[in-house]
Amino acid sequence: MVTAIGVVLIGGWCMLATAPGHIPDIWSHIYRIAGIVNGDVMVRPVDSVSYLHGGIGNVGGHVDWEWIEYSQQHYDGYDPTVVRSDSIKVFDESGADVPYNNTATNSPVAYLPQLVVFGVGKMQGFPADVTYHLAELLMLLIYAGCAAASVALLPRWRIIVGLAMLCPLLIRRYAFAISADSLTQALAFLFSCMVFRTLYCKVSNRYCIVVACVSVLLAMCKFIYAPMVALALLIPYMQRGLSGDDAGTASEAETARRLAVWRDPRLWICAAGDALAFLWLAVWMRTTNWFVTTPMIVSYDQMSEKKAELLSGPAGILDMLHAVWIAIVHGKANLDSRADSLVITMFWALWGLVAIVLLAASVARTMSKRRLVFWWCAVVVSTGIMLLTYVALWLQYTPVGAAVVEGMQHRYFFPLVILMLLCGLECLHGLWYRRRVCESGLARTNGSGSVDSRQAETLLVPR
Fold it and tell me: Which residue did the predictor score with more confidence, 55 or 80?
């Protein structure tokens, strides 16, 4: 509850302090939502252009005049996705066809809270400004609810994680924004905490059903974060390492633990959720692979050539990896923003620090093998997601011939922050506790002089 109140207060203040139109890609998101409300769930070619999508190859949908006028009224040069009114060629009394390539790949699920408000606002005839702020308010309340649920699910580290979720950097433009980032970030935090709970607490089949549902929703929001849901498959494996069981008696619990993992219904529940998530991902990507997000920067033909070069042999892969490496080392940010570059560099440094402490925890055996396996998988998945983000930007946002990946923004790290924070906390706590136990002489040692992993694991489990 404290976390929810804090998110509402901080997010509410940020919402009031943020002028309409000062959210990344806001007009493109609004056009996308309005297009979906008008029936354009799947985008189609349009002739109009925006300041970002100024060439050919634009896609979009039918947007109401009130939103076109609202975007024109509040455009001050911040977000270049606003449509150029002089380029509109297809229109009627209700609205016109406008482009929004960079949000066209987002599914309607990413905009569920905003779609509700936009739909009600259209039916009730609300002014655009009222609908805009109601959509922000509903998103903020849903985000606060997800944050509160995430903290409540944690068996440990509640205070630290709660404070992290109240960080203004995470809330400022993403807890309430009319954007696909808001719901994605909220669900990523919730999923991370739900999976973390299974490391310490026994969970039921119903709990795994909820995890599977969150997995599907997360994959439907922004496909680049879909690999996160694979961590749900480790839940049955983690549960086998816990003492006690839902069966109630020691003998029944022992019998349950001896069963093969593949016979655990929780595995099949999580696997079904992941299968549905990746099936959706495959279908959605296939239906949206005929256009590019920024045709004025990288045309569809150029993107196709890049993809062919990438798949043709090691030379193309090495060129792409070199561009990604240069971008990471130099903290390359979109539009060469120095502040953004600094935060990107900081996040990569934190990623490296987490990997180092995890390696130290592995060598020192401060956790059970099951938990070490889980955290290594978490780090690999999180790092893989960020690298895939660079690859996507190299394909669709980096001009041909550029030696470094363009378009990276620090907000792409946000959905993974809580998962990596929990990993770092677990490793640091294990290393600290092992040192304290060794210094006090309370730890038992084996023949080689290292800490007994079973004893260390017993001491590290919170009571």
Answer: 80
